[in-house]
Design a protein that fits this description.
- By secondary structure, the chain is an all-beta fold.
- It has a single domain, classed as UDP N-Acetylglucosamine Acyltransferase, domain 1 (3 Solenoid).
- The chain has one helix and 22 strands.
- Strands 2-5-8-11-16-19-21-22 form an eight-stranded mixed sheet, with no helix packed on it.
- Strand 21 and strand 22 form a beta hairpin.
- The longest helix has 4 residues.
- The N and C termini lie far apart (about 50 Å).
Length: about 180
């Protein structure tokens, strides 16, 4: 890794985009002001998707982000797709949700965690799920069809279809009727 003090600052770009730069942008999509999309060539957005103000869709050059038809994404969300991200159809994502698909691994005490290797793991959110305000979804998690995640939950493990999960870390509290 080069020393930024010697090479100067580098940037991932502004994130400004036009819908035609996306790998796919279905009809009827709404991108509110302030939405940023990085690596739009690897981001696929279905029909009638709403993306709220100041949301960041952080695509990645080696993987893809897919957002299914009819999905609603609240304002100020952050989706990072380095490990791959698939969001199904008719998913509700509350404001301020964070979805991460990579994390630093520990390389021992002699290596700062910041400089340790990255591990990548896909996140999948199946059709008809609902993610509460401010929830955090960690790498490698699958949230089953119709599952509901409570506000502020930190999801570290898979959530079965039609389950309700809440807390830090999130635990299944019941099954939806």
């Amino acid at each position: 890794m080069s020393d930024p003090r010697k090479t100067g600052p580098r940037s991932h770009g502004s994130g400004e985009f036009t819908p035609d730069q996306l790998a796919l942008c279905g009809v009827g999509c709404v991108f509110e002001p302030g939405v940023l999309v990085f690596h739009p060539e690897n981001v696929r957005v279905g029909e009638r998707v709403y993306v709220g103000h100041q949301t960041i869709l952080k695509g990645y050059y080696k993987s893809s982000m897919e957002i299914g038809d009819g999905t609603w994404i609240g304002q100020q969300c952050f989706f990072h797709s380095a490990g791959g991200l698939r969001i199904g159809r008719n998913v509700g994502v509350g404001p301020g949700v964070r979805i991460l698909t990579s994390q630093h691994t520990e390389a021992g005490r002699d290596t700062p965690i910041l400089h340790s290797p990255l591990a990548f793991a896909e996140v999948v959110i199946e059709d008809d799920a609902d993610i509460g305000v401010g929830a955090v979804i960690l790498p490698g998690v699958t949230i089953g069809r119709g599952a509901q995640i409570g506000a502020g939950a930190v999801v570290t493990a898979d959530v079965p279809a039609y389950a309700v999960a809440a807390g830090v870390p999130a635990r299944v509290t019941r099954q939806r009727p």
